[in-house]
Amino acid sequence: MKQPAQYIRWFEQITIEDVPLVGGKNASLGEMYRDLGSQGVKIPNGFATTAEEYWHVANSTGILDKLKEAMAGLDKTNVEDLAKRGKRARDLILGAGIPDDLWSEIERAYDKLCKEYGPHTDVAVRSSGK
To answer: What's the predicted TM-score (pTM) here?
Structure first.
């Protein structure tokens, strides 16, 4: 039996109140999908990963303390230092990998989209500004 998704939300589940969970653009997509679809406007289905997913990756891959260390003593007025710290944070995140449980959720969700739209469905992947 499949576990319910813990780290993703389908557009039909997302409202504007979910901005802290999925970001503003995904919350808007959820609103459009739910409200405009019933009026005959074709909005493609999709899903968003949640802010919980970010914390899960940071904790389960062991990078959270390293991220905190990289940002300790941050001086927002020192652009050069900010750029170095930002690069360090990006490198940590990009090198962390995706935990198996999260990857399984994303695979199941993508498979569901492929059943709806056909094999090898193209998707848009974006990052929230949060």
So the answer is: 0.80
